[in-house]
Amino acid sequence: MAEKKQTEERAESSKTKNTLDIYGYTDYRCFLRDFYESRKSSQRGYSYRSFSKTAGFSSPNFLKLVIDGKRNISQETIEKFIKALGLQNKRAEYFRVLVNMNQSKSDNEKEIFFYQLRSMTPKAKRRELNLESLQYLSNWLYPVIREMISLGEFREDPHWIARRVTADISPNDVESAMRFLIKEKFIEKDRDSGKWTAKEDMVLSSDEVRSLAIRNYHRQMIERAKETLEGLDLKEREFGAVTFVMPESLIDELKNKLKTFRSELHAWSVQACEDQPSDVVIQVNFQMFPHTKKL
Fold it and tell me: Fewest CB within 10 angstroms: 23, 67, 124, 145, which?
């Protein structure tokens, strides 16, 4: 049985070794763009019309409209795309799931489709899916512990960490988070000094994964804010809000002001850490949204 599976995988691989491989892609429009550019550079006379003819589309530039985001791929046209792309078996199924993930309106569905893509992707290509970054931002405890290791009094003790966190978590939660952070190298321990250090930058190369991960992150932090509204004393937190009217044309300027203030706040915190040791992890959330819409 295992030999038959390996034979099928080798046969499928041999058919696609000279073409662009879809594994690792998280945006089907990017794949279509790369496919077209690759085919056009290697096959003389290849055009959008050529693709449409192979797929059976009446519109000669349908592929370009999809690549540019002006048209979506319906369930009825997915198979036509698969035919024109020359995808077979697992790669064809990968494309179906990829289209459904990109065009889904629900984050829960997107995440389900994403994990399907991961299960279908060969191990050598899985790193390109940025699954670790998605997991990191999908659990509020991960970034909190990542920052906690910079505390001067930090102790590598799940019970100590659990007691220091304001939320109701268990030492098992901490151990699970630490295993993930260490395994994926979000934090590392210096062999000589024994001190923990945090990975400086987290790269999210895929727009699809980035947007999903960031929305999950904000959703979790909003929930944490709701918990602290009742769970923390007034002197330990600061909640404020302002409601006002303004021209819609100034929304971008307002967003830039918030971004500038956020950058200034971060720079101030870095400078403050140089003058005195840090002993608390702080979360500052910004929420700006319109209460009204045009009719």
Answer: 124
